[in-house]
What does this fold into?
Amino acid sequence: MNHSSTPGRPRPNSLTDLFVSFTLLALQGFGGVLTVVQRELVEKKQWMTQEEFVEDWAVAQIMPGPNVVNLALMIGGRHFGLPGAMAALAGMLAVPLILVLLLALLHDHYANHPGVVGALRGMAAVSAGLIMATGFKLSGTLAANPLPMRWCITFCILGFICIALLHWPLVYVLPGLGGAACVMAYSRLKS
It folds into this structure.
């Protein structure tokens, strides 16, 4: 689907706008950027609808590499071709790379300090909460899914059981459950 062809839709103004926007996204996304990316691209900038975000995020997840980097490449490429993809990629990686290197040096020195250990545990809990909140926010798009809601919920529960409880590797769960869901959705769309 070509989302950029929608007339009147807000879009990045320039390569610099892409670079700065994705740099700011990356700098906000400690512990995961899904919540930040969804809020910024869908709700604030309105470069995408909620449905477009879910579709593109699904594609970004099945591609090799970090999901948000894949999404940045897709959005940059959609609006400005290869230069846009490279600007969005540079925005996602340049400044955060410098910060991560600096934080690695600090962590190496202070890793065993009780305050640092406690702070990292607290950040992990907050990240989990943000991911759950985004999951609930995105669940509204399931109504437009070609599969019946009971099947969508079943796949969600099976995914949780496989990953969280059985500790199966994602490399098996994603093709297994994801493939089954894709085949079922495709067959319903075809009929």
